[in-house]
What we know:
Chain A is α/β, with parallel strands linked by helices.
Amino acid sequence: MAESVILIAGHIGAGKTTGIQSVSEIEVVSTEAKNHDKSTDNKATTTVALDFGTITLGNDMVKIYGLPGQKRFNFMWAALKKRASCLLLLTNNAHNVDNPIVAAIDFLSEFPELRAKGAVCVGITHFDLKQSPTRNEYDQALKTAFPDDPTPPIFTIDPRKAGDMQMALLATLANTETNFALSNIKE
Amino acid sequence: MDLENTPHRDPEVIEISKKALASMPDLSSALRYATIVTEDGFEVASVSKSITNTGDDRVAAMVSSISALSDAIASTLEINDSEYVVINAKDGIFVVRRVNNSPLVLAGVFDKKESLGKALVAVDLIKTELSKLLGIPK
C-alpha cells in the first residue's frame, strides 16, 4: 500500500480541524488551545501545532496533517511541508476579517514547491453563508498571482461532511499525480 | 485581572508575570532567557540575559506548540497530564512547563553549566510563585 501525506492549510476558522475529524479513520491527534485572540476569529479554540489523522483512499494510506492557521506558527508549516506530497488549501469565504482571496494567495505563497508541481487544490468553505468571491474569481486571482504554476482545481466543500472531504482529498491526490505524469511527458 | 480571555494584554497579569520572572536569574546564574506565554502562543512577559533574537512571537508560538504536542503525546500514551518538556541541546537546556489550571506556559533557556535538575527546580519554583501571585488554585 502506498503512503501519501496531504497537508491541510488555511486561515483560522477555515474548517481544517473539522475536516480532518470528519474523515479520519483513527482518533485525531489534536493540539487545540484556548483562543486568546478573538480579534482574528471568534473561535473558542485554535490549533497550535498540528492535527493528524489518516484515511485509506483506494490503495493509498493517506496521512493528513492540519496546519495551524496563524502566521506566527509558520515554523510548523515549514517543518511539515518537507514531508508533504500535496496540499489542500481551505479558504473561508465568510471570514469577517481577511479578504479570502488575499489570504489564499498568502498561504499558497508559502508553498512554492508544491504549487510549482501542481500538487495543490483549493476548497472554498462556508460558501453556503457567503457566495462571494466566486470560484471563477479565485481562479482568475490565482492565475494572476502564480502565472507560471499549474492552476489548482477549486471547488466548494463543507468540511463537516465526510463525503466532501473525501472528494477533496481524492481530487488533491489525483491532481498531483496527473501533474506529475504531465511533467514527465513534457520532459 | 483578565487571566482567561486576554492575559497577554492585561496589565496586571503582565506585571505579575514580570515580577515572577525577575527572580529567576537569582535562582540560576545559568539562565539565559525565560518567558511566560499564553497557551495559544502570545508572549505575556520575558526576561533575557543573553538571548535577544526571539523572532517576535516566534518563540512564544513554539513554546505553545511544544506544550500542546506534549499534552497530545501524554494523552495518546495514557500517562496523564504532561508537566515538563526538556530539550537538551548541545549548548543549552530548554525547559517548557505548563502552569496548571491556567492558560499560561513557562519556558526557560539555561547554559550547559547548569544541571538539568537545577534547571527544572528553577522553572518549578517560578511556576509556583507565578501561580501564587495570580491566585491560581493548585
